[in-house]
Amino acid sequence: MKDKGKQRGSTNTPKQMDTNRGVASPSTSLLRYLCQPTDPANLAVLRIAFGTLMMIDIPQERGMSHADVRWGRKDVCRFPLFSDLKVAPLEWMYIIYLIMFIGALGITLGLFYRISCLLFSSTYWYIILLDKTAWNNHSYLYGLMGILLMAVDGNRCWSLDGLINKSINNAHVPFWNYFICRTQIFLVYFIAGLKKLDQDWITGYSMQKLSRNWVFDPFRLLLTDEQIDLFIVHMGGLTIDMFGGIFLLFDKTRPIAIFFLSSFHIMNSTMFSIGMFPYAMLATLPLFCAVDWPRKVIPRLPKFLRVLFSTETEIEPSSHCLYSKEEIKPEGENLDNKVPVNSQSAPPTSPSLVHRLGVTFTIIHIAIQLFLPYSHGITKGYNNWTNGLYGYSWDMMVHSWTTQHVRLSYKDKISGKEGFLDPAAFVDSVGKRWSSHGDMVVQYAHCVADILKNYNMSVELYFDIWKSMNKRFQQRMFDPRVNIMDVEWSPFKEVSFAMPLLLDLSPWRSKLQEMEKELIDTSNYTDVVFVADFPGLHLEAFIQEDLGNTSITLLSGSVVVELVDLKKNYSLNPGDKIQVPPGQFHKVHTVSEEPSCYMYIYINTTYVEIMEKVETVEKTMSEKNISAAIKRKLSRQDPYVDDVRQEIERRHTEVKEKTFLDGVKEFITKKVKMLTRSWTFLVGALQSVVLRSSFDDFLDKKYSENEKANSILPETVT
Q: Where is region (Disordered) located (predicted)?
């Protein structure tokens, strides 16, 4: 048969039912529609692209290049989804990464295909489930695609499996293989669009100041930065997500969708450090085109590329597909668009278990993907100001966070001693998201308590965490009066110690922006923080010595400011302002029945003084002798001589602008170092396991060599 993909699979219409079987039931019609034979070429392109991108992703965002930094410390807290899931010994973590890489390579080559998919998916999900703080939507998508590729017949075209087993080489794949993958990508776009109907996104508070990126320079010819943020970033992003997936489904609108979605992903690749995600989404766009499009493109490729791909158009029948009797031709007959049948194995015309399993898997997977983004009413324990753990809801970029401070205090039940702990001392540099989620706060508290038991301490732990979401006031996320060690947490119950987001204060945001802009325009050395607090609570803060000019201005409600060292209290009403002394503690008590709102205005007086002296010195500099100019204008006893010198040297240092070639060279050098580090440490891990030698000794040796050479450095993933 010469199947050129003109009808079968390129149009999404079911085949004519076998007239001999009468009128088919709806379930049978669906079964035949999803199991109709289609060209495997497009699916092969997806397989090759995904496997290749995952091989690049593993040393980078999956963390193989810095596995020793991420997984090597034994004295830090972890945040697995399941408490019984533990980090393997470091040398075995490297072997897990190796297995994942071998799986991705096997997917790319189509070699031992389903075993490769299993190797990749099992190790990938193990790494993902080990650390909730690293979850994001695209990492979740990669895991889903690994599972989907394991289910579909991705090795039926341009695969080593096909060269080994001729019966599957260039064989049909059932249409549900395409349907499930297309639906998954469609849902990524469409649900992301639905999530962007959030009021914060529509009003432009989710991603402010993104317009400053150079990719928006053409829009600046017509629009201001504020207009770009609102209309291009927010409204444009909503439109692309909401309608991009829909337009991909139809032949007439698909070219428009591919153009805008490609532009969208390319822009994202330059603005955000999100690894392979833009390229992975670019690789899925051709999936929506005709299933035989690669066969039309290959003849136009250069000759040295054409030899890598077979261009044969004779597609073999597959037992995974369902054929109508009209499509089957007796062996030896030469009828186009019909499947040859021989005496050994006739193409199936009636549904079997394998067909039902494929369709059932498709329906169940799609149902789960429709359910999970809106399942937060069940998994209440993972909710906070937003719904659920960030990663499986497709609410990309809808919420932006800033953290004012995280304070962890303890009380030793044995000695009665009270004090503070450094909250960053028990986590690695990657795990910063724990403080935004109640479930992880509970995990962290129990981990810290277990560590302190080694010091003969039995503690109560209290967290005072202040954050702002989408430009609102800084406010508490959790009740600081609750001992987290006494909290009973369940994934199906609301977080009992969470403080509500003060949505009633959201209208203040536009006014806060105006006030901040006015203050910053007045002085480049001014910083402002807007705070809201609940009735009956107080904020305790320490003002550093450098912030010699710090004031509190009350915007609404009533507060009492307690200057702890001076033992004085001052009541403030809306509009009142008070200076707070540097180098001392103070407390702001909310005494009104409604939440209080106030702002801190900071002026770094030390920095101001340094800058004034820099200006004074520079005015008298007639030569490049900085030291001589400083001696003329500043006393030797001046405490800021070194600071002034460093600032002037910084200003007068000629900074060479990077050329495009410099950027390319730096990029390649960085990636080579990352790959070198990955495989160097992997070899050490293999030697440790095989030879039963100490991996710690290997690490100590490498760290010593690296410290001397300063050439191989760990890379931190953001």
A: 1-24
